[in-house]
Amino acid sequence: MGKGGSLSDGVIKKILLSYAYVAIWIFLSFTVIVYNKYILDKKMYNWPFPISLTMIHMSFCATLAFLLIKVFKVVEPVSMSQEVYLSSVVPIGALYALSLWLSNSAYIYLSVSFIQMLKALMPVAVYSIGVLFKKEGFKTDTMVNMLSISFGVAIAAYGEARFDTWGVILQLGAVAFEATRLVMIQILLTSKGITLNPITSLYYVAPCCFVFLLVPWIFVELPILRETSSFHFDFFIFGTNSLCAFALNLAVFLLVGKTSALTMNVAGVVKDWLLIAFSWSVIKDTVTPINLAGYGLAFLGVAYYNHSKLQALKAKEAQKKTAQADEEAGRLLEERESEGNGKKSESQS
């Protein structure tokens, strides 16, 4: 093949790899959600201990992250002082602990499909908290879009066959804590020039997340676990579940690193529809037409939000390139002027 053919092959390979990363992320995210539901649901594996499950995940992920960074040296650790760790990482760890605890608890009370519909509120929560902490500028058209997403989710909730108030409160709480965590990462870490990939993030955040969960676990779940003498720790179930959770973090690292965060958002929408279809067809959860109509409206709002973010990123990139081109042109002009001046001085001498 000629040069054109080899270039074409290279482009095709890049596209296929991008689709492969998206497929791996969707598969692992899908697996973790369904697996967690299976373990926690009283009608399935019947182990309704969300704090314990989250602590197992955190201890497993922290151990593997430690091995990858300190023993195998696959990833370089981030240099961080104790003061930065306590003031920046610990609050993020606390928010992450609360988000995981509440989101895993919601699986006991709500269907997988309805949980995915409620998660559509994430852009609304992130934008609202971003405006509150002055990380996002208030825009009327964006707020109208956020209201349309909220209205769509409200319709989906109205049509939910297995509506459980406590389950909805738990999931909305999880969304609020996760959105706050994402904004706090920008304020406490990114603004200080600290960037953590999923492995270094687990290395620093998972241990303090485990410690934060330990307190409610001692009072809420430990007494019940002591009374449940029939329970035997299944290393296969909890081991494979934790491995999937860790693999998902690696998939996030691959997907965002090789494509973009926006690609992950779009892939997330595809994953949500697949989960709703799976929940209806395999788990036999009831999905009503009102559910789908409401989520469809929310989906359009989220899609428009992602499109707006993409356009803003493109405009910013174009502005950056223009500024660089102007700077380069200015530099070349200065060089030519200095060369001209040099020649003049030579001719005069």
TrEMBL record:
Which spans are transmembrane here? 16-35, 47-72, 84-102, 108-130, 142-159, 165-189, 201-220, 235-255, 289-306
Keywords attached to this Swiss-Prot or TrEMBL record, sorted alphabetically, are: Membrane, Transmembrane, Transmembrane helix
Is Transmembrane one of the keywords UniProt gives this record? yes
Q: Where is the Sugar phosphate transporter domain?
A: 20-306
Major localisation: membrane
**UniProt xrefs under Pfam families:** TPT
Q: Where is this region: Disordered?
A: 321-349
Q: How does it sit in the membrane?
A: Multi-pass membrane protein
Subcellular localization: Membrane
Q: Which InterPro entries match?
A: EmrE-like, Sugar_P_trans_dom, TPT_transporter
Assigned GO CC terms: membrane
**Record's keyword annotation contains Transmembrane helix:** yes
The UniProt entry, under PANTHER family, shows: SOLUTE CARRIER FAMILY 35
What protein name is recorded for this chain?
Sugar phosphate/phosphate translocator
Q: Which organism is it from?
A: Hibiscus syriacus
